[in-house]
Specification:
Layout lengths: L6 H7 L13 H5 L15 E5 L2 H4 L12 H7 L16 H15 L3 E5 L2 H4 L13 H12 L3 E7 L5 H7 L5 H18 L5 E6 L1 H10 L11 H25 L5 E6 L4 E3 L4 H14 L4 H6 L4 H7 L8 H7 L5 E5 L5 E5 L6 E3 L20 H13 L4 E6 L16 H19 L4 E7 L18 E4 L4 E4 L1 H12 L5
Helix pairs in contact: 5-7, 9-11, 10-11, 11-15, 12-16, 16-17, 17-18
Bound molecules: 6-O-phosphono-beta-D-glucopyranose (BG6).
The site of 6-O-phosphono-beta-D-glucopyranose has 16 residues, from loops.
């Protein structure tokens, strides 16, 4: 029997690590005798997890004093959701959480990323907290801990209290940023004895442009770019204020970071010049959010490009926005852009996607496993980050139950195997990725697609609420058990 060795160990064996070089891809194969291939392992303490979000799974929208959120309003309005559904019941996770924790346990996952519904805690967004608002999360967290699963709580996964939208225009006002910090402080004071890690906001890069610019997510507004940029600035400010509130109200050792769908840039061909151009592109194309929260400045390029539409801000706000965090969460699905070097400013070209570029069942989900290598690597290099979590990765599919009742989602297995392979490559190259949260634990309310797109590794029968593990659940369980991809 061969002992399992990581690519990093192998690089050492080959004498490459002394030179600061990682073993080239394929080195294992040439080093091993035929038939003795040993899969590379993930680091010993690598954190395997799964993820969901409150509005997508909980249901129970009228229970225990929860107020309405902008997604209740948006989903109930005619014409917004493809299959005319909503999250009223969703996966009924609010009542079935114990069984669902059992599903996580069955995968062997050691962490669960869920989100807290702000309108459960503050039904009006501000003011007096609902006395029952955190009881569900208390129960969920206790169940997780009892089962040996670490809770990772996200404070904002898009379900803004409707009252804040109506009163101050939601993220168009910095009052919402301050309300978010008060909510964050309240949650951490109550749950921080058991939850060590918090994500502030999920995917500012999605809910701001889609909700305030394009009008296709809640609150469904189509506003001019200046207001979209201002809303993004208020989300950045909310993040910074929340980090400060968490530091003020949390226990020692409480960790916090953002979860962002980084605009991922990938070198079209891995030449040195293209890689450098991709680094520049990554910084500039994330200048409106990630770069400002990680450096405390809007880049000159961003301000020049935004011109009159640039957000209004003060130096004091920039300081708050850049309050130091403990980790960076990256949601990684599709490649944002393929990049080549250019002699003209800004130093990079964005290539057009060929019309036949392959994608998964969601049109937007182009298949590019190398995104999982380049996004964390470049983020770590550019912003000097020493702890990254892949806070989401996974795929939709048109899953069907076969005659035997099983779901053979070979496309999802293909997707995960290839993305995880590139994640392993990144880690072997020294990129500090500490954990991975598969999106999603189970099929759920997929926003504007309703229940028409399925992202889960557990199939959910929305009539009966029965859960069935798909083939991908067995695949993921196997990866977790071996801490490696395949035998
Ligand atoms: C991420 C979100 O953008 O992608 C998740 O954080 C979402 O909440 C997932 O479910 C898939 O997105 P969509 O738009 O295809 O439902």
């Amino acid at each position: 029997m061969f002992k399992k060795i990581s690519r990093r160990d192998l690089a050492g064996l080959l004498g490459l690590s002394a030179l600061g070089l990682a073993a080239p891809a394929g080195a294992q194969r040439s080093a091993a005798k035929p038939g003795t291939y040993v899969p590379a392992s993930f680091p010993k303490d690598f954190l395997w997890g799964t993820a969901t979000s409150s509005y997508q799974v909980e249901g129970a929208v009228d229970e225990d004093g929860r107020g309405p959120s902008i997604w209740d309003t948006f989903a109930h309005a005619e014409g917004n959701i493809e299959d005319r559904s909503n999250g009223d019941i969703a996966c009924d996770h609010y009542h079935r959480y114990k069984d669902d924790v059992g599903l996580i346990r069955d995968l062997g996952a050691k962490a669960y990323r869920f989100s807290i519904a702000w309108p459960r805690v503050f039904p009006d967004g501000i003011g007096t907290p609902n006395p029952k608002g955190l009881d569900f999360y208390d129960r969920l967290i206790d169940e997780l801990l009892k089962t040996g699963i670490e809770p990772y709580a996200t404070l904002y996964h898009w379900d803004l209290p409707q009252a804040l939208q109506e009163r101050v225009g939601g993220w168009l006002s910095s009052e919402t940023s301050r309300a978010f910090a008060d909510y964050a402080g309240h949650v951490v004071a109550r749950l921080g004895d058991r939850v060590r890690s918090f994500f502030t906001v999920n995917e500012c890069g999605r809910f701001v442009p889609f909700g305030y610019g394009l009008g296709i997510d809640a609150p469904g507004l189509k506003l001019p770019q200046a207001e979209v940029n201002q809303a993004r600035h208020h989300v950045a400010l909310a993040h910074g204020l929340a980090v400060q509130a968490i530091r003020a109200h949390g226990r020692a050792g409480t960790r916090v970071g953002v979860a962002e769908n980084i605009t991922s840039c990938v070198p079209a061909i891995d030449t040195e010049a293209n890689i450098e151009a991709t680094r520049v592109a990554t910084r500039e194309l994330n200048a409106g959010f990630l770069n400002v929260i990680l450096t405390g400045a809007y880049t000159e390029g961003f301000l020049r490009y935004a011109g009159a539409t640039a957000p209004k801000f003060t130096a004091e706000e920039l300081k708050i926005i850049a309050t130091p965090t403990d980790f960076l969460g990256l949601n990684i699905y599709a490649p944002g852009h393929y990049i080549t070097a250019s002699d003209r400013p800004p130093g990079f070209d964005v290539l057009p996607f060929p019309s036949a570029f392959p994608h998964m069942s969601s049109d937007w989900l182009r298949i590019a496993p190398e995104t999982m290598y380049w996004a964390p690597r470049l983020a770590a290099e550019i912003w000097n980050v020493d702890a990254i979590y892949i806070s989401e990765n996974g795929t939709s599919s048109i899953d069907r139950r076969a005659g035997d009742g099983q779901v053979y989602d070979l496309d999802r297995v293909m997707f995960l195997r290839n993305y995880l392979g590139q994640l392993q490559r990144a880690i072997a190259d020294g990129v500090p990725v500490k954990g991975y949260f598969l999106w999603s634990l189970m099929d759920n309310f997929e926003w504007i697609y309703g229940y028409g797109k399925r992202f889960g590794v557990y199939w959910v029968d929305f009539e009966t609420q029965a859960r069935t593990p798909k083939l991908s659940a067995f695949f993921y369980r196997d990866v977790i058990a071996r801490n490696a991809i395949g035998a």
